[in-house]
User: Fold this.
Amino acid sequence: AGNLATSVKIYQYLVATGEPNSLVLWTISKEMRLLMQLYEQPQNALSLGIWKNKVSSYQQALRRLNPQAFLAWPQLLLRIDAAIKGISKESPEHLILQSVTELCGQTLFQYQG
Assistant:
C-alpha cells in the first residue's frame, strides 16, 4: 500500500522474531519482479500469478512507483544477496530496509556504483 511507517514496523518485527534475511529477500525479490513484469505486461496480471483480488493493489503500486527506479532494483537485490552471504561488507538489514523503502515509492540512498 506504500505506507512506509507500517512497512518499516513489519520489517522490524520480522528482524525481532528472527526471520532469516534470506526469506525476507526472497519475498521482496518476488514482489519487485512481479511489479516490473506487470509494468511491462499490464494486461497479463493473472498470468503473472497475481491473484484476482490483488490486481488493483498492484496497479495502484505501479501508479505510485517511478518506473525509472525499476532499473536499480536488480542491482539492489544482488547487493542484499551478497551482504547476506558475507561477500560484501554492507549491512543486509540496511539494504533490506532500502528495498522496503523503494517498494513504498521512496528512496533512502542513491547508489553510486
The chain is about 60% helix and 0% strand. Residues 107 and 113 are 16 Å apart (CA to CA). The mean pLDDT is 91.
